[in-house]
């Protein structure tokens, strides 16, 4: 089951049928226990119509209202290696090695909801950075009780030169207007996502594919439930929250994003998140 936030209402997709929910408050709509079961019950009382799909095609928004977006890092070997390389001049390399092996995961605040964009909207790169990449990440929706109740696709846009200069600059490398994209929907399953699900990143410039890579989520070192346990240890999230689970795909060091590039991230079972890099 997939739920989409659109300008004209909340669309539920199930088994090829489209429904419009009677709910009008996204926070209340998504932050319910047993969301899969609740949605199944709800659609039994709703008419299905093929034209509801056009609401997704024409007025899609990011599937967020007042939730914070958090992120975890260095959860894949590829991410650890890339960060060790970029920060070795600053002596930061051994921090990444240590966090990869430590029991406590790296968790950081990524974005307030007003800085988040959805699929079809533009992401940004910073004016004061020369080395930028997208980070394609499976993103969890966790309800206020700390239960993982849905999955979406995240792009954790990152400035590698700022992050590499000094690990203490991480918040500036990661958090700025339109540095977080999530969408297109929240996929709600009746069991955890299939661990063989593949994440694919494609970056194209002038309609020509420039970079493509993919990785299965089972290559991640940590369990989703462990990340959530740490995140919820000393913080409450009254409307639930989103958690990006880290990247396993990093383009080669000679690659940087440019204005106009199109970033396409797909995850099996969820869909595709597409964002163009806009003027600085
Ligand atoms: O430690 C820096 C950030 C790591 C990150 O965002 C990732 O691994 O995805
Ligand atoms: Mg990341």
Give an overview of the whole structure:
With 280 residues, the chain is an alpha+beta fold. Helix content is 21%, strand content 33%. The protein has helices at residues 26-30, 35-44, 53-59, 77-86, 93-101, 160-165, 170-174, 224-231, and strands at 2-6, 9-14, 17-20, 68-73, 106-111, 116-117, 122-123, 132-133, 136-142, 148-156, 158-159, 180-187, 198-205, 208-216, 241-244, 262-267, 271-277. Strands 1, 2, 3, 4, 5, 6, 9, 10, 12 and 15 form a ten-stranded mixed beta sheet that branches. A five-stranded mixed beta sheet has the order 7-17-16-13-14, with no helix packed on it. Strands 8-11 form a two-stranded antiparallel ribbon. It is globular, with a radius of gyration of 18 Å. The two termini are 37 Å apart. The model has no long low-confidence stretch (mean pLDDT 96). The structure holds 2,5-dioxopentanoic acid and magnesium ion. The site of 2,5-dioxopentanoic acid has 12 residues, from strand 4 and helix 4.
Radius of gyration: 18 Å
- Strand percentage lies at 25-35%
Mean pLDDT: 96
The arrangement of helices and strands along the chain is EEEHHHEHHEEEEEEEHHEEEHEEE
**Bound small molecules, which ones?**
2,5-dioxopentanoic acid, magnesium ion
Please give the share of residues in helix: 10-25%
Shape estimate: globular
SS class: alpha+beta
- Runs in which pLDDT lies below 50 for 5 or more consecutive residues are none
Largest sheet report: 10 strands, mixed
């Amino acid at each position: 089951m997939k739920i989409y936030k659109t300008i004209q209402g909340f669309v539920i997709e199930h088994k090829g049928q489209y429904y419009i929910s009677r709910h009008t408050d996204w926070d209340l709509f998504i932050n319910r226990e047993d969301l899969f079961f609740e949605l199944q019950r709800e659609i039994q009382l709703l008419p299905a119509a093929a034209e509801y799909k056009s609401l997704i095609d024409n007025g899609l928004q990011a599937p967020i209202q007042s939730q914070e977006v958090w992120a975890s890092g260095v959860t894949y070997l590829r991410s650890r290696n890339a960060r060790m390389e970029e920060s070795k001049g600053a002596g930061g390399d051994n921090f990444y090695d240590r966090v990869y092996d430590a029991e406590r995961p790296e968790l950081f605040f990524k974005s307030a909801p007003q800085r988040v964009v959805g699929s079809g909207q533009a992401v940004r790169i910073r004016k004061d950075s020369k080395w930028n990449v997208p980070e394609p990440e499976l993103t969890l929706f966790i309800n206020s009780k700390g239960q993982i109740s849905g999955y979406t696709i995240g792009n954790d846009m990152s400035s590698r030169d700022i992050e590499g200069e000094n690990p203490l600059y991480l918040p500036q490398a990661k958090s700025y207007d339109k540095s977080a994209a999530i969408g297109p929907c929240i996929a709600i399953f009746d069991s955890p996502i299939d661990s063989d699900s593949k994440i694919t990143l494609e970056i194209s410039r002038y309609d020509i594919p420039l970079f493509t890579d993919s990785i299965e989520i089972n290559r991640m070192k940590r369990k989703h439930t462990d990340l959530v346990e740490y995140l919820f240890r000393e913080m409450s999230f009254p409307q639930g929250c989103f958690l990006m689970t880290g990247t396993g795909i990093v383009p080669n060091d000679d690659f940087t994003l440019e204005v106009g590039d199109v970033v396409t991230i797909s995850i099996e079972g969820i869909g595709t998140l597409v964002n163009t890099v806009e003027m600085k």
